[in-house]
Amino acid sequence: MAVRLADVAKAAGVSQSTASRVLNGSTRRPKPEIADRVRAAAEELGYFPNAQAQALARSSAGLMGLIVHDIADPYFSSIARGAQRGLAGTGVQLMLASTEREAAAEVEAVRAFMSYRTDAILLAGSRGMEDDALLQKVLETYQDNGGKVSMIGQPFPTAGGVQIDNEAGAAALASELLKLGHRRFAVLSGEQELSTSAQRSDGFIAKLKAAGVVPEVVKEGTFTRDGGYFMMGELISSGAVSAAEGSEGGGPLCVFCVNDVMALGALAAIREAGLRVPEDVALAGFDDIPTLADQFPSITTVRLPLEEIGRMTASMTLAPGDAERRMVVEGAPVLRESTRLP
Predict the structure, then answer these.
(1) Alpha-carbon torsion (86, 26, 121, 66), positive or negative
(2) What SS3 class is residue 151?
(3) In 10 A of CB 146, how many CB atoms?
(4) What does the alpha-carbon distance between residue 293 and residue 99 come to, in Å, rounded to a whole number?
(5) Element (H, E) at 66
(6) How far apart are CA 313 and CA 322, in angstroms?
(7) Helix, strand, coil % (nearest 5) of the chain?
(8) Percentage of the chain surpassing pLDDT 90?
(9) What interhelical angle do 5-12 and 16-23 show, nearest 10?
(10) For residue 303, how far is the Cα from the chain centroid?
């Protein structure tokens, strides 16, 4: 039989309301000796406080919700770890929901966190080019009831958070690849209706064109590892990889994938075709997920401080007056073996 609060109160020789104030975190605090007696009784009896009762007593659930597209993606798991570290010592626990990139699942996750009365909700990941009216309405209802909302990656009309300057990061990467001597390029983009995908491909292509270089191929696909794998396979089958081999100023085709998991998929397709990186195909990604530098060859990318982004967003959201603050983070190109020229 479960131990009740009344049992703890009886064992400690206090009223049930006093025991509740001690164990549920009320601002009305009994004397230290009484509080110690109540806690000792709870420990001896094996009593666990009721989370809902604690939330009512403190007017706070002590919970923050984080919604990501895919927790198996190192991009999102790194952000989640950073957010958890940002909450260390605050008494606030992180709850996680993964939506598998479905808009309806995202709305349902928000509603679930609302039902748990979380103090704040963080949403990480690329948004569509058009605002999601239903999501915005649900979030506004949550905010009207005192909840805080922050976005990671993309701006949102009624929320603060950390925005990533995707265009600038991609343009900086293109500039560095041009400096290395690359002149043949292909871009493997995600869905163009995703703002992150569009911004990264647009920034990269714009920098190339400003230098008088036009990419040979621009392909659209899914913003995933499998998307990179299938697009790279199609690119190899089309003959584009070796189309300019031996021509003046040709060199290997340099393939830019708009995120790192796509680059890992592309690397698998290249190896299956019996081709080498960087000798036959040069390869670059974006994000610098933790596993990227351990690949062979190591892969060129744009480094984002993913854990720090998660930590900053969680900390900002909890800080008084900072919930609507917006910060912009720029990525930095990291050149590795996958784009080395002879």
Answers:
(1) positive
(2) strand
(3) 10
(4) 28
(5) strand 63-68
(6) 10
(7) 45, 20, 35
(8) 49
(9) 110
(10) 14
Q: What is the pLDDT of residues 79-127, one digit of tens each?
A: 999 999 999 888 888 999 998 877 788 889 999 998 888 889 999 976 6
Contact 67, 109 (CB under 8 A): yes
Output the furthest CA–CA distance in the chain (Å, rounded): 91
Q: In Å, what is the CA distance from 240 to each residue of 44, 166, 243?
A: 72, 27, 5
Which token pair is 203? 């920034």
Contacts of 31 (CB under 8 A, 6+ apart): none
> What is the enclosing helix (H) or strand (E) of 20?
helix 16-23
SS3 174: helix
- Global pTM? 0.80
At residue 251 the predicted structure's pLDDT band, cuts being 50, 70 and 90, is: confident
Read off the tokens for 93: 């626990």
Residue 122 phi/psi, 5° resolution?
A: -110, 135
Distance of CA 178 to the CA centre of its chain: 29
- For CA atoms 120, 168, 206, 292, the dihedral sign is negative
Instruction: Tell me the C-alpha distance between 155 and 6, whole Å.
Output: 49
Helix locations, 59-156, DSSP H = 74-86, 103-115, 133-144
CA neighbours closer than 13 Å in the CB half-sphere of residue 302: 29
Tokens of 70: 């895919």
One-letter amino acid of 26: S
Residues found in the chain = 342
Domains and CATH numbers, the chain: 5-58 (1.10.260.40), 63-164+307-329 (3.40.50.2300), 166-304+332-339 (3.40.50.2300)
Exposed / middle / buried, residue 271 (Cβ in 10 Å: 0-12, 13-18, 19+): exposed
